[in-house]
Structure formats: C-alpha cells, structure tokens
Amino acid sequence: MISINPDHQTERDNYKLLTGSILPRPIAFVTTLSAEGILNAAPYSYFNIVTSNPPMVSISVQRQSGKQKDTSRNAIEKGAFVVHISDESYIDAINQTAANLSPHESEVELAGLTPVQSAAIDVPGVAEAKIRMECILEQAIPLGGNEEAPGCDLLIGRVVHFHIHESLYHEGRIDFNKLHPVSRLAGDFYSKLGELFSLERPRRM
Fold first, then answer.
1. Which is nearest to 125 in space by CA: 138, 135, 110?
2. Model confidence over 24-54: pLDDT tens digits?
3. Which residues partner with 142 through β-bridges?
4. Which of 45, 92, 109, 178 is the most interior residue, by most CB within 10 Å?
5. 92-106 burial, b if ≥16 CB within 10 A, otherwise e?
6. What pLDDT is stored for residue 148 in this prediction?
7. CA-CA distances (angstroms) from residue 99 to 36, 104, 152?
8. What is the spatial distance between Cα 13 and Cα 45, in angstroms, rounded to a whole number?
9. Threshold 0.85, pTM exceeds
C-alpha cells in the first residue's frame, strides 16, 4: 500500500485522490434563482441523502479562492433551490451548464432546457428531469479553507415537494432501471448503471 499524508499534498492532488476513489458519485443538477431573477443551474457530484425524517439532501459547493459560486449565493439569499436527478436523457445539456458563465447569464437558457414552475418554492426547476426535489435551505455551513476564505459551502436542503415522472413510480417506489441515472467518475468520465446484483441484509437473531 502507498501511504500519503494529505497535508503534504496540494489541494489539486487531494482532489484527484478523492474523486478517483469515491465513485461512482450521484450527480445533483441544481437550479437557483438570483436576486435579479436569473435562473442559474449547475451539476454537483458532492451530493447525497442526509436523512429521511424529514427528507433532506446535502450538496457541497466548492468555492474558488474563497469566493462563493452562484449556486451557494443564490440558495442562501433565496433560502431555496431545486435538485434534479441526472439521467441519460439530458446529461449532455447538464454538462453544458458546467460552463463558467457570469451571474447575469442563465445556464438553463444556454443549455436549451425548459424552466418549469415549482409547487412550494419560488425557484423554478427544469422539465427535462424525470425526478426533481424542491428544497428549502435548512443550513449553509462554510467548511475547509480558513476563516477568511472557506473552501466550500455545505448546503443542506429539506425536501418540501417531490416531482416524479409517472413512468418511474409504482406503489411508492422508483424503478431505477427506467430512470437510467448517470453518475460521476474521475476526470471527464461518467457511468451508467452496469451489472446489478442483490444481497440480502443480515438479520440478528
């Protein structure tokens, strides 16, 4: 085994070890609304479930030299955002939204995606997603870096409304085979669902 002390590496070196080890990672496609009414969007693979009671999700939005990205700033100012689950049907458009645009430009418009009104919050989602979750910002926690320039904003969102395409939904469950989710690997690589297997969870006597 190779032993590496992260304190002796650059941030970029540690990033490559993390993203090359923790995979595949689900991709949250997040829309936020700026104070000027611009609908911003971006994909994030530092994303997961926090709890189901109440339903919460987390997204870690990395800062650039301590400066907040549009997603963090908008989510904090508006107190809400929409998380979409990335799938094969619109992954090319999602990738387009990773472009480095100014805060006054809409990635949704750039990618040709279709804004759709939310049910419980003011922030629109996009119609192309088969699953979207309207979220109220529960907490925004600056982490890493230093006091003057944190490394990221950990956004914790409480899901206040689910939107699920009828083709996926059956008796309270989602058919992941019909969802065709896409996950993030390292570099420019992504992954689809591959070979599946099941393991029965052990039960104590």
1. 135
2. 999 999 999 999 999 999 999 999 999 999 9
3. 153
4. 45
5. ebbbbbeeebeeeeb
6. 81
7. 20, 13, 19
8. 18
9. yes
